Amino acid sequence: MEAWPIYLLTGGIVGFLAGLLGIGGGLLMVPVLAAIFASLGFPSDRILHSALGTTTAIITLTAVASLRAHHSRGAVNWRIVRYITPGIIAGALTGSTLAGQLSSRVLGMIFVLFIYLAATQMWLNLKPGAGHVLPGKTGLFVAGGVIGALSSLVAIGGGLLTVPFLTACQIRVHHAIGTAAAIGFPVALASAAGYAINGLLQTQPLPDYSLGYIYLPALVMVAMTSTVTAPFGAKTAHILPAATLRKIFAGLLYLLGTRLLLDFQG
């Protein structure tokens, strides 16, 4: 509990940046929490697991507010949500289970690689070509499985993967974003459950106040401030040009990814 000021500050900063940049709360939060947990003396080979599990639990709380906001604007395609969610849950549980079996170094390399890919996509503003047809129930289940597994491995709500997928399937961008926000809740919930269960099943002792790989003090305090500052970031986003925001976010991701990479090399 001696780190509570750091958690509150982290939540405030990450919440503001997530609101400012639209996506990326998980990508920003994992490296920060990993650094905090390392300074608190968490088991070295479980630090990243705890950072990922705690982040998915935090995203579960913040995803509810995002879902409600987009639903109130009629921007959620509930038919897609209904058919993709079973695959999302299966994939997220699979991804979090796989993460529990991987060493911290391997898991870290996967996370860093994803950060670099996401940063490059944002810096270059790469987008998938439109013109694809939205798949049927089976296709949405498979797509959900892939999105859920990858999202669980790197602790994101899924928007970074879901929005490009839906826009490529000719879903209007506002509905793609709103639907991705709704999908983010089952992604995060299933991922958090997977990290909690897998942490409880492993034999190595984890820090007090842990629910598996979810560190409860960080969950509560980061969520407290991130939910307050995210709306201010969203308002600020309307002042800055979109291209500038993408460059800021990409640069920040490169820095955080490099810092994490150096930690694992050290």
If you had to describe this structure to a student in words, what would you say it looks like?
This protein is mainly α and 266 residues long. The protein has helices at 4-21, 25-39, 47-72, 78-101, 104-124, 137-154, 159-168, 173-201, 216-237, 242-265, and strands spanning 210-211, 214-215. A two-stranded antiparallel ribbon has the order 1-2. Helix 1 (4-21) runs antiparallel to helix 2, helix 1 packs parallel to helix 9 (216-237) and helix 3 packs antiparallel against helix 8 (173-201). The model has no long low-confidence stretch (mean pLDDT 85).
Write the layout of secondary structure elements.
Blueprint: H1 4-21, H2 25-39, H3 47-72, H4 78-101, H5 104-124, H6 137-154, H7 159-168, H8 173-201, E1 210-211, E2 214-215, H9 216-237, H10 242-265
Antiparallel strand pairs: 1-2
Helix pairs in contact: 1-2, 1-9, 2-3, 2-10, 3-8, 3-9, 4-6, 4-8, 5-10, 6-8, 7-8
